[in-house]
């Protein structure tokens, strides 16, 4: 016999259970002397429909390559191109019988074509495709036995973008009528299990009298070598799940049952397969939390043999037609826990247990019983049935072929003769509706084109506007970068000014006790402080003032020492006067007090150290007393000598106090009769003029500051605030300088200046905000003014 096998896809492109079954059947039929060919679908695509031929396992394969889009969509299940190529193949091959295993990727009128060509047909229904475009009868996510009708399935079937409800309804009716006609024209219909046939009878118009239940020949490889002996079970029970991992295969039901059983710790679960749906992956992650699950990923059947399993679990929510997975488990000697839907419940027998599909509580009860009595697994293992070989199956199929060919009576078949007309009308109506939508789309396209032209002009304007904005943005970015740099420079400037202010403040508060600082390096700052200049100039001038201040403080220490010397010399003069008065009165018994020497040992011009002066004076007094007593004639010479001493003391006094006349003017008043007074009189006369010039200079600087402030006001607010802060800092520094300058300038009348109002919220690093700077500076200046007043007094 020449047999044409028809299938939706074939090896090597496709390698699923149905494809491997057809390959195995062909192999055995060829061994039985039959002539075979294969007509198959593919996912390949071409500009025009064509056929491709190749040979696989010594069998000629004709592959249909279709054109167009959405080729696997259920609404493309009727294909005139596939039907034409199939009709041509029938004429070319001239088979004695056609065995159709599937219509998917081909056309749902293949049996009708064979009927018209007078070729008998045998159909094997490997799944539920003839009763449902989804293959598994899944409606709203659950298994459904509702007959294929628009009301029951309209919202559960995928639709193309242009399809409306009436388009879906028409396609459902055409799908149902075409397959009912296909089954009506088949000579024999094979179902691999009674459960599968019973379900098809319930959900569609089904010619029961021509149905034959023939279990598949197994496609699983030979079982592994038997292990020497299975050790007595004492540890955890090993469960295995494998196959396609998507929601309707029900792996999550097992995990939910383990969570509910309370004995999950007695089981390890091994899972083989790939989870392709992200949503189902998340569900599995949730239900397996806390369970001992080993995920092995993609696999080949030999991988399962590597794990010593005790039980296989098949919690499918689908209605399985046969289940090659169950064959694999039986080949491995594994009892099974299966759902009772479809062939699984029928085939399990006593080699395991079944439970209602999707009922995790029922499965949990079975797991509890297994955990309590694991030996029940060994009992189930002894009840595993033998599997029919593919050779045995091929012999049964070949006998069926022969019976069909022998009794091929086309007159007993009842085709739906009106179906071609309805199919043609459906296609015509479908074409008309699509033309209406196409013209509607064209009208909308024209309107949209007009709007598009308008939008294009507006878009050009917007693009030009955006270009302008882009240029402005670039300019703004440039200004922003420049402003950031300027701000960074001002920040460095403020920080430097703060450091300078702290150094000046420390110099005032520590007096001459602190060490003179080293001049810091000036930072690279372009900005200038109003009234003060660049930061380098500020640092340089501050250093000069600090050096002068430090030097003046050292001079103050010398002045204290000189004041002590003056007091010492004054006492010496008083002693001389007292002695002279006593001698003038004729009193020679003079009790001289021991002189109080100054702390510092300093040489006086022409006189020497205080100790030497005191010794000389005492010696002179003694000699004077002796001379007065012994030689009255020498009195006049001694008086002259004393005059010279007084002159020398006056000279020393003038030289020691000339830089501090403002503080010791009472002493200078007595020295006006001295010949040396004329040398410093000119300096005192010019002091008021210098003071006036100093205040005029300050007024000029203030005017410059006001002018600079007016220029700065034109800038942005942040720079205005910073410039104002720099100006005030400059004034504060100037005040500190003036306070330092008072030490060595003859200002006889000075009071604390009133600083400008400070209302800018601005902090100087290391110093504080502006009000705090102003307050501390005024306190320091007031302290030094008080010191000056005390020195003056």
Structural commentary:
The protein is an alpha/beta fold and 793 residues long. Helices cover 53% and strands 10% of the residues. It has 22 helices and 18 strands. It has helices spanning 17-31, 80-93, 110-117, 150-153, 165-185, 194-203, 251-261, 278-287, 301-304, 324-331, 343-348, 360-372, 376-381, 390-406, 419-510, 535-584, 610-630, 635-657, 665-671, 678-712, 717-741, 770-792; strands at residues 2-7, 35-40, 50-56, 59-65, 97-100, 121-124, 138-139, 142-143, 188-191, 211-213, 237-242, 267-272, 293-297, 311-314, 336-339, 352-355, 763-764, 768-769. An eight-stranded mixed beta sheet has the order 3-4-2-1-5-6-9-10, with helices on both faces. It has a six-stranded parallel beta sheet with strand order 13-12-11-14-15-16, sandwiched between helices. Helix 16 (535-584) runs antiparallel to helix 18 (635-657). The longest helix has 92 residues, at 419-510. It is elongated.
